[in-house]
Amino acid sequence: MSRKSEPEIKPLVNESAMEIKPVYTPADVEASGGSDDIGNPGEFPFTRGIHKHMYRQRPWTMRQYAGFGQPEETNRRFRYLIENGQTGLNVAFDLPTQNGLDSDDPASQGEVGRVGMAVDTLEDVETAFDGIDLEKITVSLTINGAAAILIAMYFAVAQKRGYDIRKLRGTAQNDILKEFIGRGTWIFPVESSIKLVGDTVLYCAEHAPLYSPVSVCGYHIRESGATPVQEMAYAFCIARAYIDHLLERGLKIDDFASRLSFNFDLYGNLFEQVAKFRAGRRSWAKIIKHEYEAQDPRSMWMRMIAGGGGAGLTIEQPENNIVRGAYYALISALSGTQTMALCCYDEAYTIPSEKAARVSLRTMQILVEEMGLCDTVDPLAGSYYVETLTNQMEEEISAEMKRVDEQGGIVRGIAEGHIQNEVSKQAYEREKKLERGEIRKVGKNCYRVEEEQPQVEFHSFSESAYADRIRRLECIRNERNSDDVKRTLRKVRDDASAGRNVMPGIIDAVKAYATVGELTACLVEVYGRYEEPLRF
Amino acid sequence: MSGLEKRIRVLLAKPGLDGHDVGAKVVARSLIDAGFDVVYTGLKKTPEEIVQSVAEEKADVLGLSILSGSHIPICVRVSDRLRERGLSDLLWIVGGNIPERDHARVKETGVDAIFAVGTQLQTITDFIRENSR
Q: Is A286 domain-assigned?
């Protein structure tokens, strides 16, 4: 034996607890499950992408999250983003709207128009989309607890402007189960919340078949502390819970599965992330084909927005977030996403400035126009490393889903708080590792600089606009036909009590200018309010 | 010193409508590991409910986690309620997304310390241990 020993290579595991070897070979691909499931883009099991030609045919949709203050201000930001080449809109609502409260509710005090656009009545949604072609620009509504009401408002505005909602595209986030795990804009108890999601899907299946009424979010679960494997596994368990509910209500899997979409996070190790998305696409296709016996290949597509990356950004040296954003966009493009959005470099401090929003948009455009990311489909396919990780990731996602099922399923896990507990335990472990420097974060726990007055411009918040808003809401309440409002609200309450679909009633009520708060109160009368299981 | 020294009791609360509670839960876990008694109110509590909990739980320390940008109006209201109930002496800390330009105004309401995003967990436990009265 030679006395000159090999340099020692330290063992390494990724965030999903998989051991990473210094070199991968075809033997690793074979040992992890082989190459049979790689397949072709546009064909089951869709490892390489849901479309045959992916970005060669059309680049991903660019859809920065935006919305703040009064609907007029949001409308201006929307037009700015569209003028700069953005191809979709993603609407941020303020917390009162997300929690089903009117701007003049005492609980809304100090929060109106703060983290998103304020909506009380249909007029606000009309203003926000004024002058925007809803057939050219697809709109995503980031709304959950109050989703049924905001979807109704969006449809009502489209109809008033002469669009046929049968041809209307767009997405609502409307994934209430993840709100109980992270993000927290729940209103009603768990079971009634699922029923409401079911109402929106049923309504769309019949009246707006091109609209995507639910975007199941691993994103916020990951942001709350979950590993990449849990992010996928919990999202799939949640999507199955909605599917099971809809099948019970008489839909067939191929009636609606193609309209479900997903929302996932980007931050972390580049190769682990790409493998996560490729494995996720394959897992989801198999679940829909084998467990639910779908026939339509489109039902098996894991359509997604892969974006954000907020938890990967740092408040220290915020300019570094521009660089992180560029790598996250690269991950998203290499993963075959349908839609991309990036957190802005100033977002850890404030509502993004116009400049920061444009830098994020330009980041995506540079990938499309300069870097060749759209030239050929799934360019990492066939890499020994990526294919091995993809195989391993698929196995781990499936094992994690099985664990959730064995513990009583995702709905029970959420209602009792076990899932939340698991996620926050991991957030704590991650924080400790960050503090000990075991997870490296540039500018935070290594390469620090001490001066650090952040060079970001703060979003200003107007108190006088708030006063105008309260006056306008009062005017609408006085001007509208109060008999119509009472009659339509009564119908919503009756439909909810009788277990009927509340969507047609809500659409009539928003057209009569019933407010978000009034409609929510009606539903609370019937469903009650969610009580948090207090675990941490 | 007696081995039966009273444990410091901390009430952590999420005021306002913001639902992001990872930070609050991480701080709760670290305070428990550091030997404190911790009560967490859960999300979306009004200043009235929070101060009611402070009284009921006989908390030595109140910690608010606020990420929505509405820290000033919230702290003003909590401060008023604390004063009404004669609880202004309590050690009061606030964590979250509080820009430096607002620190002075938040402290004017009676907040003893602000732990902005990025604070080390140890800094919070040390502060409570040294300052709880």
A: yes
Rounded Cα distance, A232 and A246, in Å: 21
Residue A534 lies in a domain: no
Report whether A55 contacts A333 (CB < 8 A).
yes
Q: What is the spatial distance between Cα B49 and Cα A199, in angstroms, rounded to a whole number?
A: 34
| Domain, as residue range, for B62 | 1-39+55-67+83-133
A324 closest CA partner among A363, A361, A357, A362: A363
CB contact under 8 A, A424 and B20: no
Residue A458: inside a domain: no
- pLDDT > 70: what percent of chain A? 97
Residue B126 belongs to a domain: yes
Distance separating alpha carbons of residues A494 and A487, to the nearest angstrom: 11
Q: Are residues A137 and A210 in the same domain?
A: yes
Number of domains composing chain B: 1
Q: Percent of chain A at pLDDT above 90?
A: 90
Nearest C-alpha neighbor of A337 from the set A308, A314, A313: A308
Contacts with B97 from chain A: Cβ below 8 Å: 348-349
pLDDT at A26 over 80: yes
Which among A99, A453, A536 is the nearest to B25, CB-wise? A536
Task: For residue A382, give the 3-state DSSP assignment.
Answer: coil
Residue A124 DSSP label: H
Cβ distance of B18 and A444 shorter than 8 Å: no
Whether A1 shows a pLDDT value over 80: the answer reads no
pLDDT at A74 over 70: yes
Q: What is the mean pLDDT of residues A297-309?
A: 96
B26 vs B31: CA distance, rounded Å = 9
Looking at residue A300, which CATH number applies to its domain? 3.20.20.240
User: What tens digit of pLDDT does each residue of A432-470 get?
Assistant: 999 999 999 999 999 999 865 666 676 777 778 889 999
What CATH number is associated with residue B61? 3.40.50.280
Contact, A115 vs A96, CB < 8 A? no
Residues 6+ apart with CB under 8 A from A400: A229, A230, A232, A233, A234
Contacts of A424 in chain B (CB under 8 A): 22, 25-26, 29
Q: Is A497 exposed, middle or buried (0-12, 13-18, 19+ CB in 10 A)?
A: exposed
Host domain of residue A493: 463-527
Give pLDDT, residue A455. 60
